[in-house]
Each structure stands twice: as structure tokens, then as C-alpha cells.
Design brief:
Blueprint: H1 3-30, H2 52-59, H3 65-70, H4 74-80, H5 120-127, H6 134-142, H7 144-147, H8 161-173
Helix pairs in contact: 4-8, 6-8
Length: 183
């Protein structure tokens, strides 16, 4: 093969590349894309979190809490806390995990476990006073983020009122001096 043949091959290759590049430029002129004013897509607005009072009203069972607690089964509640045990300790003197230890939680002051780093929302609620009574625990377990906006608890909530009553009965049993049931 002589140099003339190599020149023809190189010329054909370069000519083809030049032709393809020219087609691309011509295509850009003919079919100019529409560029949006703002990059990206408009997403629907996030739903506004309900107020704490609204969450309590929505979480209120049709049967009053004292009646549910009167027939609640602490054994069933103990079975339900297995999912909670990943973040909370339930035994007396148990160490804090991702969440505070829950032994003696019923009628304990809010954000009162020593050595636990509570969220700003929990500290603010504790500054207002109050205890974790049955009604407060019921509303919190039903919808943690609705009851206490800004809480770092990632649990979605337990919607079934009877299961919450069983859970509250178990939490009540975790005490040296269990709190009396509400009337």
C-alpha cells in the first residue's frame, strides 16, 4: 500500500467526521431545544404538620382511654415493645440508647432521664412542665411528630387505640410503684 492509498483513507475518515459534525450543527439550528427559565421540576408543597392539639384530637379513641386501660393486657404490650427495644431500654437501670430508657416512664417528668441528649423540642416541652401521664403517652405513641413537632423520634406512630392501651399497661408495669389507672 503506497502513501496515496493512506491519504485517501485518511481523507475519507476526516470527511465523514466533518459531515457528521456539520449535520449536528444543522440539527441544532433546525431543532433548537426550549430551555426552561428555572432548572428542574416543580414539586408539590409539603403537607403542613398538624398542631399538637389537633394531633391529640385526631388520636383520641372512640372508647375513652380509662376504659381501654381497664381492659388492657400488659403481656400483649410487652410483645409490642420488641420493635422499640432497638432504641429504648426497658429494664430497671437500663442504659440510654438512641432513645432514653423507659423504665418508670409513666408519671415521670418530660425529658427527665439524666445523661440523655434530648431534642430541642423535648427540652422545650419539659421547660413548660408536665409529666408523661397516660393521656400524654397515648397521644405521643399515636403520632410522635404530631404531638411533639421537632422530636427526633423516627417512629411513625401506633394508630390502633387498643394496642396503645396494651402498650401503656406494659409501660405502667415497668415501675417499682406503678401509677394508678385514670378514672
Amino acid at each position: 500500500m503506497d502513501s496515496f492509498e493512506l491519504n485517501k483513507i485518511a481523507g475519507a475518515l476526516l470527511g465523514t467526521l466533518l459531515f457528521v459534525m456539520g449535520l449536528g450543527m444543522l440539527g441544532d439550528v433546525i431543532f433548537a431545544p426550549h430551555k426552561p427559565v428555572v432548572a428542574g421540576y416543580a414539586l408539590p408543597a409539603a403537607e403542613e404538620a398538624p398542631k399538637a392539639g389537633a394531633a391529640q384530637a385526631a388520636a383520641a379513641p372512640t372508647v375513652p382511654l380509662p376504659q381501654l386501660l381497664a381492659k388492657a393486657d400488659a403481656k400483649k404490650g410487652e410483645a409490642q415493645v420488641k420493635a422499640c427495644a432497638a432504641c429504648h431500654a426497658f429494664e430497671k437501670g437500663g442504659a440510654n440508647k438512641i432513645g432514653p430508657a423507659l423504665y418508670g416512664i409513666v408519671d415521670r417528668a418530660k425529658a427527665a432521664v439524666p445523661g440523655f441528649g434530648y431534642s430541642a423540642a423535648s427540652k422545650e416541652a419539659a421547660a413548660k412542665g408536665g409529666k408523661w401521664d397516660f393521656a400524654a403517652l397515648d397521644a405521643f405513641i399515636a403520632n410522635p411528630k404530631g404531638y411533639l413537632p421537632g422530636t427526633s423520634m423516627g417512629y411513625a406512630g401506633l394508630k390502633d387505640a387498643e394496642k396503645r392501651a396494651d402498650l401503656l399497661a406494659y409501660l405502667r408495669s415497668l415501675s417499682d410503684n406503678p401509677a394508678p389507672l385514670p378514672q
